[in-house]
Amino acid sequence: MASNPDVQQFLTALRGRITPEQAGLTTFGSERRVPGLRREEVAQLAGVSTAYYTRMERGDLGGVSESVLYALVRALELNEAESAHLFDLARAATGLRRAPRVKPTPRVSPRLALLIDALDVPALAMTQLGDCVASNPMGRALFPDLFPPDRPPLNGTRYLFLDDRARVFYPDWEKTAREAVSGLRLMAGHDPSDRALMALVGELATRSADFRTWWGGHTVRTHFAGTKTIHHPVVGDMTLGFEVMALPSTPGLNLLTYIAEPSTPSADALNLLRSWTADSAATEIDTARQH
């Protein structure tokens, strides 16, 4: 079977981050020419021959059993996302390759739209590629750059890498951008036949040197919860907790919500944004009535 460079680079990066001491291996005084573990050391930890592991690292995962994959998970100390990515790569190597296809854009049901609009916190329904298909007024107010007047919403991933405003809006831009890359890498391993995903990756790799570099690092992580610090153009700096919830009724769509810790400057800023949003809505209603 032909080698798979994605597998090769992924496994090479993983063994490069673990030292023999971390793995509990005894080393001697000879100079090491590679960072992290050698191939024979990974093979030893996984209980396979060096030749067999070398075959796997070169991208030939065809016919590799689950028990060997789990042994690699333990040897390389993979987290949940990395383990899932390894199994996705193995599944792609052993199964029939699907022809590239365009997935239909997920549609928001009327009930989900009502729910999003009723939430008193910023909320957006987004595809995994970063297309916003529904949002409430607070969500649009929190991310004003993504919602230009009289135009469709911007793709959040393109905005992050190709719009200079993103580097101001996210003070910790690199962390946010790296998280986006790792999420796309995880999706690419799970479904390499997604034409829209591959087109987005190709565009970003061509136009963004940062994306191109981080994509080559093969880091995979899931980001379903955490905090984000943003510099909002109206209410200033905020650190908000976020939750990303998959919607089983609408595959491919996630609900994102944002909230601030009570009695903090971020909560005050979010309340100010809430008031500003309400005032803007009232002004729009008055203007519409006058016409």
From TrEMBL:
Tell me which InterPro entries the record gives.
Cro/C1-type_HTH, Lambda_DNA-bd_dom_sf, MLTR_LBD
* Gene3D superfamilies in the cross-refs: 3.30.450.180, lambda repressor-like DNA-binding domains
Q: Name one GO molecular function term.
A: DNA binding
Entry-linked Pfam families:
HTH_31 (PF13560), MLTR_LBD (PF17765)
Domain HTH cro/C1-type positions: 36-83
**Which PANTHER family would you find in this protein's record?**
BLL4672 PROTEIN, BLL4672 PROTEIN-RELATED
Q: What is this protein called?
A: Transcriptional regulator
Biological source species: Terrabacter aerolatus
